[in-house]
Predict the 3D structure of the following.
Amino acid sequence: MASGIVWFLFPESQFLGETIPANGFPPYKAAVLEFILTFFLMVVIINVSTGSKEIGTMAAIAVGGVILLEAMFAGPMTKASMNPIRSISPALFTGNFQHLWLYIIAPILGATTAVLSCKLV
């Protein structure tokens, strides 16, 4: 919805918040980085918000802190999507599907690996 509103208000805008790797940053490295970002985000979410380890309001601070740090450090390279839907929506409005595969596959694999690793621990 946000991409639609930006597209409506600023039709001359080219990017509309789309997630694409930075110039000179190879897509395969962006896929690996998105995998790692999503993996760590999901590990934090699983560990602070489930079972007897649930810590209530501090869980929101932990998750928000991880998202902030990941966006600060990986944002300039990959736009730090960490969510396939956040990448699909702008691509629908811009029509640029060139790097969309990495923003769909890498977060799904990262989240799945995080769930499996937490189950093993």
About this structure: Residues 27-49 form the longest helix (23 residues). The chain has a mean pLDDT of 87.
